[in-house]
Design brief:
Elements (H helix, E strand, L loop, with lengths): L7 H9 L12 H7 L9 E4 L5 H9 L4 E5 L2 H10 L8 E3 L9 E7 L10 H11 E12 L1 E3 L6 E3 L1 H8 L4 E7 L11 E7 L4
Parallel strand pairs: 1-2, 1-4, 2-3, 4-5
Antiparallel strand pairs: 5-9, 6-7, 8-9
Length: 198
């Protein structure tokens, strides 16, 4: 994928300068609740745009054996590996999401979609579709807020998201998260999408 205005250089600079306001320092509560309900510890899970990826660390600690993290930023992934020395290094992918190859049962979305330029949103959905196994799920959080128009994080609305996602995936749920962290209370949508089996 070609370098965009908000590509690797942009995100490396953010990490280098400590401009990581999206990093809440813990597993996002709505995702923690979802993870705690999962029973298949062998399913293949991807977390794109993972940053320091508290969700991946939590999954690994709980015994999930096929968790993969992906980020453009080398700095972010080095921080993640330093904090989680027992996490399988071969499952840490330092590359562009749109170049990544693999097949997953579950992909977790946490502040990655909002980091992409709005023009990439259709490509995001198509890529998610290609990475999911039939019956696989894309689960996570989206900002239900206009946010920024000229730089990440880019926001949006439920109507807009449904329009994008429903072209390739079955939207099982998209509702206001009831347990977001306080600064995001009422501004996050929790969603579950499934790749059709047919």
């Amino acid at each position: 994928m070609k370098e965009t205005k908000f590509g690797k250089k942009f995100w490396e600079s953010k990490w280098k300068n400590g401009e990581t306001g999206w990093d809440i320092g813990e597993v996002s509560p709505p995702l923690k609740l979802y993870i705690d309900q999962l029973k298949n510890y062998k399913q293949h899970i991807l977390i794109p745009g993972c940053g320091q990826c508290y969700e991946a660390a939590y999954l690994h600690q709980k015994g999930f054996t096929n968790v993969h993290t992906l980020d453009l930023s080398t700095i972010a992934l080095e921080k993640f590996k330093e904090a989680n020395p027992n996490f399988p290094k071969e499952n840490v992918h330092n590359e562009d999401f749109f170049d990544h190859k693999g097949e997953y049962d579950l992909i977790l979305e946490q502040t990655f979609f909002c980091a992409l330029e709005p023009a990439q949103r259709k490509d995001y959905v198509h890529k998610m579709y290609s990475l999911l196994k039939p019956g696989g799920k894309l689960v996570g959080l989206l900002f239900d807020d206009p946010l920024s128009k000229d730089r990440p994080p880019f926001g949006g609305s439920k109507t807009e998201y449904l329009n994008y996602f429903s072209h390739k995936l079955k939207v099982d749920l998209m509702e206001t998260a009831h347990n977001s962290i306080l600064p995001r209370r009422g501004r996050e949508l929790f969603f579950i999408c499934t790749k059709p089996v047919d």
